[in-house]
Amino acid sequence: QVQLVESGGGLVQPGGSLRLSCQASGSIFEIYSMTWYRQAAAKQRELVASITSGGITIYADSVKGRFTISRDNAKNTVYLQMNSLKPEDTAVYFCQAPVKTIARSIVNVWGQGTQVTVSS
């Protein structure tokens, strides 16, 4: 079994910064791309940023230039550095990754989510 656990969410004022972390644990053989999604109240879940195992990144247009995704493969962890936060960034942030287990099966794993609230 594989788990993803997010941390680092909280309340921040507009213009502030937060750093989210998501660590994978369990019967991991290989982690492929790692992706951050977010879901605001009454809205659909949307992709925020993604990073391949080799470090190639993509970002939603709404966060380009403000958010930075990175990963530490040795720690099975992905990070999301969020700067210049805006009220519209308020959402529950989830990490997701397809993982090849030690048994060589591939599972699509989601974290439980962490709340980010941007408000004065």
Q: Secondary-structure blueprint of this entry?
A:
Layout: E1 2-7, E2 10-12, E3 18-26, E4 28-31, E5 34-39, E6 46-51, E7 57-59, E8 67-72, E9 77-82, E10 91-101, E11 106-110, E12 114-118
Parallel strand pairs: 2-12
Antiparallel strand pairs: 1-3, 3-9, 4-10, 5-6, 5-10, 6-7, 8-9, 10-11, 10-12
Question: Overview of this structure, please?
Answer:
The structure is a single chain. The chain has 120 residues and is mostly beta strands. It has no helices and 12 strands. It has strands at residues 2-7, 10-12, 18-26, 28-31, 34-39, 46-51, 57-59, 67-72, 77-82, 91-101, 106-110, 114-118. The strands form 2 sheets. Strands 2, 4, 5, 6, 7, 10, 11 and 12 form an 8-stranded mixed β-sheet that branches. The mean pLDDT is 97.
Question: Could you list some keywords that capture this structure?
Answer:
120 residues; mainly beta; 8-stranded mixed beta sheet; 4-stranded antiparallel beta sheet
Brief summary of the model shown:
The protein is built from no helices and 12 strands.
Strand content: over 45%
Distance between the termini: 40 Å
Q: For the residues shown, what is the average pLDDT?
A: 97
Task: Please outline the major beta sheet.
Answer: 8 strands, mixed
User: Total number of β-strand segments?
Assistant: 12
- Our count of helices gives 0
* Helix/strand order, N-terminal first: EEEEEEEEEEEE
